């Protein structure tokens, strides 16, 4: 599994969010449905426009405020210098150490990000010297040209006690 550990400074994002049922497979159903809704109702295009991005530029997802049965999920981008655009919410991302996992390059729409999340939690965490830390988890998507994309999953981590 391709990953790196990086310290990130605080930054702000803006976008729209929804409350997701965090039980079992629900996030793997509800989050893609939220993306579908935000694409079809024009929200994704509005985010791209106010962020100064082109029509095919990629925006990101953030999982935050995890509670027992719920979590919040934001579709958005980095907050513009001009401040919070009307109709969106702002999210402060604190400085943290992240384990950053890369999907590698894939053709448009073929990342299978849900299985990648499952592999990280099921394979990497149990065998690593890290455990998850409290904080937002990010899905960063990058357009690498020629209809090829790369996604990164950023999960805040701390070293396991005694490692």
Provide a count of the helices. Answer: 3
Structural class, judged by helices and strands?
Answer: alpha+beta
Largest beta-sheet characterization:
9 strands, antiparallel
Q: Which bin fits the share of residues in helices?
A: 10-25%
Question: Secondary-structure element order, as H and E?
Answer: EEHHEEEEHEEE
Spatial separation of the terminal alpha carbons? 20 Å
- What's the mean pLDDT score? 91
Notes on the protein architecture:
With 163 residues, this protein is α+β, with helices and mostly antiparallel strands. The protein has three helices and nine strands. It has helices spanning 26-40, 43-50, 113-127; strands at residues 3-8, 11-21, 60-64, 70-78, 89-93, 96-107, 130-132, 137-145, 148-159. Strands 1, 2, 3, 4, 5, 6, 7, 8 and 9 form a nine-stranded antiparallel beta sheet that branches. The longest helix is centred in the first third of the chain and has 15 residues, at 26-40. The protein is globular. The two termini are 20 Å apart. The model has no long low-confidence stretch (mean pLDDT 91).
């Amino acid at each position: 599994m391709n990953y790196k550990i990086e310290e990130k400074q605080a930054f702000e994002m803006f976008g729209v969010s929804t409350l997701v049922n965090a039980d079992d497979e629900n996030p793997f159903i509800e989050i893609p449905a939220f993306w579908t809704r935000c694409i079809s109702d024009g929200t994704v295009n509005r985010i791209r426009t106010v962020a100064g991005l082109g029509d095919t530029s990629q925006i990101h997802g953030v999982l935050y405020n995890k509670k027992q049965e719920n979590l919040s999920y934001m579709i958005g981008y980095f907050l513009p210098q001009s401040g919070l655009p009307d109709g969106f919410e702002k999210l402060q991302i604190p400085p943290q150490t992240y384990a950053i996992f890369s999907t590698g390059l894939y053709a448009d729409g073929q990342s299978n990000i849900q299985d990648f999340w499952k592999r990280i939690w099921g394979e990497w965490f149990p065998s690593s010297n890290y455990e998850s830390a409290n904080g937002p988890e990010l899905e960063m998507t990058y357009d690498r040209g020629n209809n090829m994309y790369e996604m990164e999953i950023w999960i805040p981590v701390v070293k396991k006690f005694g490692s």
